[in-house]
Amino acid sequence: MTGFNPHHLLGAAGHLPATRREFLQRSGIGLGTLALAGVLADDRLLADSHPNPMHPKQPHFAPRAKAVIHLFMNGGPSQVDTFDPKPALDKYHGQPLPMQLRTERETGAAYRSPFKFSKYGQSGIEVSELFSHVGEMIDDVCVIRSMHANVPNHEPSLMLMNCGDSQFVRPAVGSWITYGLGSENQNLPGFIAMCPGGHPIKGAENWQAGFLPGAYQGTYIDTKHEDIERLIAHIRNAAGMGRRDQRRQLDLLQALNERHQQARQQDAELEARVQSFELAYRMQMEASDAFDISQESQATREMYGDSVQAKQILIARRLVERGVRYIQLWHGSGQPWDSHDRIEAEHRRLAGQCSQAIGALLRDLKQRGLLDETLVIWGGEFGRTPTVELPKPGANAGTTSGRDHNHYGFTMWLAGGGVKGGHVHGATDEFGFQAVENRVHVHDLHATILHLLGFDHTRLTYRYAGRDFRLTDVHGRVVHDVIA
Q: Range with the lowest mean pLDDT among 96-100, 147-151, 427-431?
């Protein structure tokens, strides 16, 4: 007896059965081998016309990193309050600075940091008390103090940081990476974006596939939920439907979609939909396990802490262990780090939610031998001014205790994945306003990330609308000084 073939349901003329009798006659062929078809459903064993675009692929050269965890502090954390201490702000506090750059909103006098900085590790790098847990791991961290972007607005800066272009629709970094590398686990998405409580500004555009095939788009998870069925929508089968029946249903859908697609020149959106059905089917077996942190030891859970941030950061480590390629962790919906007011209270509250878990992640990855092959990235879409933001109706509450957006100079850090630990790259001016030494643009950061993953950023391209596009467009240089 031959295997079940859903194309039989279309008939010789390629049309759907007109009657129930005709449907049963066609579907009767091969029903006895449904169980075998389910076993062979893994696309590595059962060849079909829908090869899995997420199969592992080889990069251009030997990679230093195999996976990325991007800790995104959306809203823009202040560099002079976290990883870029500026004693000159103490001297000039409350006075006009001898330099001034145009900011998005009106700012006034110098505003010193309310946080204490201390030296950590053998490298002696100074870190704010806000991130003391990261400070304990600073010898594994490369701090880039000379980042700069294009504009001081959230929306274009988010698009630049996440997609390489501030204006046009472009694929996200995670989409480019999964397009180039595929994924080591075919039962989980290769690119996952986690954000508790909703979406950041610009929503799903931050993890869009753009003109790449839809299979490379990030999968969004709302980590505020505890129950697996709320954490991952539709993770369970429909009531009363077993896996064998569901497999049969998907095979029929695929046959119908194939017929539909043949008349539409291999439509990319339809192909993405087919792949999403198959991925959802496979996820039902593995996702419940991957997102269940109760399987971790009590000691591990205590090391990370019990906040929502701790939960999603621990999940990220579990996903890396299972071969997920790119995981982006957003702090929360909207732009929580956008401290135009009360920066001392707000930054302390936000860092208190994640500092312990970030330090634990670095320690945990290192203890498990995963840090060398996992690139960890921390930062926001830009930084903040070293001057105080002046009150303005509709902009802040008028407390003169916050900072405005600053794209001229800000800090990000990298760890693991072939990065030079215990190292500071670049510098801002004495007040922390503008990058002045070994400046690193966002395009340079992207080129460096791709290099650590084994790619020449000028050669990782995709042809669209008559030209070859890349993440870095016509820009970008690899920052070799940050690579071990």
A: 96-100
| Strand pairing report for 423-425 and 141-148 | parallel
The single residue listed with the structure tokens 């016509």 is 474
> What per-residue confidence (pLDDT) applies to 256?
73
466 vs 282 pLDDT, higher one? 466
How do residues 1-10 score in pLDDT, each as one tens digit? 344 444 444 5
How far apart are alpha carbons 225 and 312 in whole angstroms? 10
pLDDT in tens, 83-127: 999 999 999 999 999 998 999 999 999 999 999 999 999 999 999
Dihedral angle of Cα 2, 5, 10, 12, to the nearest 10 degrees: -40
Q: With beta carbons less than 8 A apart as the criterion, state whether 103 and 404 touch.
A: yes
Selection from 415, 54, 455 nearest residue 219 by Cα: 54
Task: Report the alpha-carbon distance of residue 424 to residue 438 in Å, rounded.
Answer: 11
Q: Are 414 and 142 in contact (CB under 8 A)?
A: yes
Contact (Cβ atoms closer than 8 angstroms) between residue 329 and residue 378: no
Give 189-232 as a 3 state SS string: CCEEEECCCCCECCHHHHHCCCCCCHHHCCEEECCCCCCHHHHC
Q: Taking the CB of residue 75, how many other CB atoms lie within 10 A of it?
A: 26
Tokens representing 121? Answer: 């590790």
The vertex-155 CA angle with 153 and 160, nearest 5°, equals 95
How many Å apart are CA 56 and CA 181, to the nearest integer? Answer: 6
Q: What is the pLDDT of residue 289?
A: 87
For residues 273, 279, 282, 283, the Cα torsion angle rounded to the nearest 10 degrees is -120
| SS3 of residue 412 by DSSP | strand
In the 8-state DSSP scheme, what is residue 144? E
Distance CA 359, CA 470 (A): 33
CB 430 within 8 A of CB 88: yes
Contact (CB, 8 A) for 457 and 422: no
Kindly state the helix (H) or strand (E) to which residue 148 belongs, with its residue range: strand 141-148
φ/ψ of 121, rounded to 5, equals 65, 180
- Contact predicate 145/411, CB 8 Å: yes
User: Residue with structure tokens 């330090």?
Assistant: 359
Instruction: Enumerate the domain spans of the chain.
Output: 67-232+294-482, 235-290
CATH topology of domain 67-232+294-482: Alkaline Phosphatase, subunit A (3.40.720)
